[in-house]
């Protein structure tokens, strides 16, 4: 049998690294076969919240104002950007005006507990919107920022994609402060095949 290529080895390593569970993440973060669309989407948002919270937990509070270069957001502002854009995208796509209280930026841009509460408030609101929807509502079209006409489901997917992209940007913020980034969980531990 031929030896695996370097690419194959990298793929196997990354696959193993991205399926490690985050501390505090339980088996409920993930869809089971037969779950409804709202359950599946809510599980994805809960998984993503756990990832974002793990990055906040990892960064020492004294580095919340760290910027790799002067023209970019601070670490805390990047997290704020994820949460605020999630809420804005979902609010416009679902025609919601009952926005969550995301806390005081004077606190959450400087204090870990407040930033974690900011993350929780934004994600929990999105999960509640999803759980209050049925498949028909999720597949209905909505407008995002008056610029994009997409299904609400696609708006949720786009918001998560933006959040993942932004979270990836903070990896150098952690590494430049000698902090090892937590593993990013793509597939919840509960979905791993035994063997």
Could you describe the 3D structure shown?
The chain has helices at residues 6-18, 37-58, 75-93, 105-108, 112-131, 135-139, 152-169, 171-175; strands spanning 141-144, 148-151. It is mostly helical and 195 residues long. Strands 1-2 form a two-stranded antiparallel sheet. α2 (37-58) packs antiparallel against α5 (112-131), α2 (37-58) runs parallel beside α7 (152-169) and α3 runs parallel beside α5 (112-131).
Descriptive keywords:
195 residues, mainly alpha, Four Helix Bundle (Hemerythrin (Met), subunit A), 8 helices, 2 strands, globular
CATH superfamily: dinb family like domain
Which strand order do you get reading across the main beta sheet?
1-2
In whole angstroms, how far apart are the ends?
Answer: 22 Å
Structural domain tally:
1
Secondary structure category: mainly alpha
**How many alpha or pi helices?**
8
Percent range of helical residues? 40-55%
Shape: globular
CATH topology: Four Helix Bundle (Hemerythrin (Met), subunit A)
Regions with little confidence, pLDDT below 50 for 5+ residues: 1-33
Reported for the largest beta sheet, the result is: 2 strands, antiparallel
As a percent range, the share of strand residues is under 5%
> Care to count the β-strands?
2
CATH class equals: Mainly Alpha
Mean residue pLDDT: 85
